[in-house]
Amino acid sequence: MVSKNILACFEIWLIKGGFKGKRTQTSVQYFNAKQRLEMDYLGRMNKPMKQKYMLFLKQYLNNGKEFLESLKVA
Q1: CB 21 within 8 A of CB 12
Q2: Looking at the record's lineage, which domain of life comes first (predicted)?
Q3: How many Cα neighbours within 13 Å face the side chain of 72?
Q4: Does the N terminus or the C terminus of the chain have fewer Cβ atoms within 10 A?
């Protein structure tokens, strides 16, 4: 399961990256011209979403708490 604090920052990060979000009854989906990312409400992700989440976590690990704080301010 994804932490709610991290999830909020992840959502902002995706939107800043050009994705548009949509909530359905069973999942949250993010779209851009090239990809469809999806996570259900239990935290299960499709492959493209997992790849984006891993990239997000790597940025968090490399840049620390300031990375998350910069997303909250925006």
Answers
A1: no
A2: Bacteria
A3: 9
A4: N
Kindly state the greatest CA–CA separation across the chain: 35
Task: Supply the range of the domain harboring residue 8.
Answer: 4-73
Would the pLDDT of 15 be above 60?
yes
- Using a cut of 0.70, tell me whether the model's pTM lies above it: yes
For the record, the structure tokens of 27 come out as: 């999942």
Looking up tokens 């989906």 gives 29
Element (H, E) at 21: strand 20-23
Q: For residue range 56-65, what is the model confidence (pLDDT) as tens digits?
A: 999 999 999 8
Per the structure block, which two tokens stand in for 1?
Answer: 């399961």
Residue type, 6: I
Give the gyration radius of the chain's Cα atoms.
Answer: 12
